[in-house]
Amino acid sequence: MRARRLAAVVVAATLALSACSAAGDDSPTAGPTSTAAPLIPEASELPTALPSDVLAGEMQDLAKLAERLAQQLPAQRRPEPVRITGSSTRWQPGAAYRGVFADPDIVRHDGRWYAYATNTSHLRLPVLTSRDLSTWTPLATSGGGRVDPIEVGGWVRSSDGGRDLWAPGVDKVGNGWTAAYAAPAGTQGGQRHNCIGLTRAPSPAGPFRPVGEPICYGEAQLGVIDPDVFVDEHGVPWLLWKFSGVVNRRPAGLFIRQLNADGTGFADGSQTRELLTLDRPWEGNTIENPSMVQFRGVTYLFYSGNSWERADYATGYAICAGPEGPCVRQNHGDPLLSTASTGRLGPGGASAFVDHKSLRVVYHAWDQVGRTRQLHVASLWQRDDGTLEVLDPG
Prior knowledge:
This protein is mainly beta. The protein is built from 2 helices and 20 strands.
């Protein structure tokens, strides 16, 4: 079975993607774009069930299960557990790193893994590389020097040279690589107001240069953050992100929109789709950090919920009819990775990826709450009904 996309109906709004204000203490504003489609559509009721031809966990009946088993799906390999090695908390090229590495994203190219994270060690885009998923060393120049492989857009307002970038998402789009990041574009109500920037590079090691306009939404005090670049099984690129919500009007949610073939902006005529909205008690006051992956015919959406500063932070997942949804929470709506189920404190910021014939997620967890968010790799198993179980938390 191939996951199919289901068109959703959205109500047109007057707000859209915008360029950010040039003043450092001004809030970004919203204005019209060439697509004339709003960045955040009007709120609408999200589906609570998937179409009948999409796997849906407990909703799957025996007849559909038998049909699935008869299909020629790619083989699934039982993944070996991954343990991150190294003890150095200093960002030192050539040394196995085990320090701060929050909100990780991961790609593979030419036999090497590249992992990206929220700023650390005075780097805007910290990058670790590995051959085996276990030993990770900082990206380095040919001479063994430190590398910060990204240049940020001129709209970024930072007192630290642009080094407060959050939760990057990277993938190969077209003939190059697109890296998306969230950064402050100003302030609103005394808080940092975030926009998303896009950059392009010839390789996953960079250098990433700014492209297009910043993606902003002035109606939300905190703006938009946590971008994820996802390329589906048909080669179509997408951008996912977290909308921070509007106090007393609309809760936080996860959204998606198609990118153009070059990964430099939204595709002409594209529209934003809402995938999930804050809903379950364990999610606390927010959901964030979307990550989409397709594995053996099923589209999965992973996300984090609750406060990242606490052990209550956790990772849930949904099965989707395709990149544009609808998406329905699985595991009875409970988190897939939690402190209780993994023994890791506050497992979140997860990014899903396919490792040969296995499905894994890379995520961060506290060594001690409030101290260091470290990298982990969890190994998953796809059950016959398409739902997932954790074989090893990493």
